[in-house]
Amino acid sequence: MEPVKVGIIGCGNISSAYINGCRLFDMLEVTAVADVLPAVAQAKAAEHNIPRVYASPAELLTDPEIEIVINLTIPAAHAEVSLAAIAAGKHLHSEKPLAITRADGRAILQAAQEKGVRVGCAPDTFLGGGLQTCRKLIDDGAIGEPVAATAFMLSHGPEGWHPNPTFFYKVGAGPMFDMGPYYITALVHLLGPVRQVAAMARASFPERVAANGERISVDVPTHVAGTMQMHAGAIVTMITSFDCWGHHLPRIEIYGSAGSLSVPDPNIFGGPVRLRRSASNEWEEVALTHNDEVRRGIGVADMAYGLRYGRAHRASGELAYHVLDVMHTFYDSSAQERHVTVASSCEQPRPLPPGLLLGTLDR
């Protein structure tokens, strides 16, 4: 089977993870990179031995061999770059979030439908061994009917470690839009789409100070807390925060009629996965049923398999738009001081079959 050639636009902090992750799959071939800073693209190509470097993203989009474009630009540029890739007839996989606004997210999906190309979006961590094992346990009835869940992402923000932290405090980021996609995507994967949200949000501090002394004005909420009710009925308590120096909260737990499930960090591909059954007083660690050696790029590989074998891909644009819509609904609920029904929905992603060898996916 001829591999799908991939071009990457945006050669920043996360691009190496994508390049290395894509190279785990023979179905993918990363052939080109581009960045608004040509020297950055040149350095990335040299670091990873990528054959073609383009002077601009627009030039990369003229390459007739590239089938999938991976958009790794900052959130504020996602819509512009994604729409340009679609207009050039390329299938698209975007870093999260799909877009900053609902209108831009809808425009991306509409443009792709009209052009006959696919849209995918990060995160694809739900395709890793940890979250796939959790999905299998839930589907197999290990905790009975899911009735509730918790999801907590609390830190004191990225300004202490990230080389360019300013955008984390601008529109399209903050803890909800930066880390919320991992948690909400994982929950939709495990429990299905979200029906309703009730939330509160605030920007706790007007300014942050980066490790290099740069002062960053805060333009988005930095502490967001609320509840989601899923269409299937489970009620989820969720907090995302950049205002917390430390905590003892779990990342994600699912509570069912016959047991509880401790879900691993949704920002990684592995475990541990822990289960407490109703008949036991102890948590047990569960062996992973799926491969945990995959990396960022498995969602791109899943799209490539879909292209070659004519099936749907799992990290879909519809899923990403629903997650975007849910995140905005947290803000809407806080601003309106009421429960808000989520306008969109999506299909719960199909689980991966267990036992796949590293570098392969189902047909």
For the structure shown, list the relevant keywords:
six-stranded parallel sheet, Rossmann fold, single chain, 17 strands, 363 residues, Dihydrodipicolinate Reductase, domain 2
Description:
- The structure is a single chain.
- This protein is of the alpha/beta class and 363 residues long.
- The chain folds into 2 domains: 4-121, 3-Layer(aba) Sandwich (Rossmann fold), CATH 3.40.50.720; 127-290 and 324-341, Dihydrodipicolinate Reductase, domain 2 (2-Layer Sandwich), CATH 3.30.360.
- The chain has 9 helices and 17 strands.
- It has a 9-stranded mixed β-sheet with strand order 16-15-14-13-7-12-11-8-17. Strands 3-2-1-4-5-6 form a 6-stranded parallel β-sheet, with helices on both faces. A two-stranded antiparallel sheet has the order 9-10.
- Strand 1, helix 1 and strand 2 form a beta-alpha-beta unit.
- Helix 4 (78-87) packs parallel to helix 5 and helix 5 packs antiparallel against helix 9 (317-336).
- The longest helix has 20 residues, at 317-336.
- The radius of gyration is 20 Å and the shape is globular.
- The model has no long low-confidence stretch (mean pLDDT 97).
Write the topology of this structure.
Elements: E1 4-9, H1 15-22, E2 28-34, H2 38-48, E3 52-54, H3 57-60, E4 68-71, H4 78-87, E5 91-94, H5 102-115, E6 119-121, H6 129-139, E7 146-154, H7 174-191, E8 194-202, E9 207-209, E10 215-217, E11 223-230, E12 235-241, E13 252-256, E14 259-263, E15 273-277, E16 284-286, H8 298-309, H9 317-336, E17 340-341
Parallel strand pairs: 1-2, 1-4, 2-3, 4-5, 5-6, 7-12
Antiparallel strand pairs: 7-13, 8-11, 8-17, 9-10, 11-12, 13-14, 14-15, 15-16
Helix pairs in contact: 4-5, 5-9, 7-9
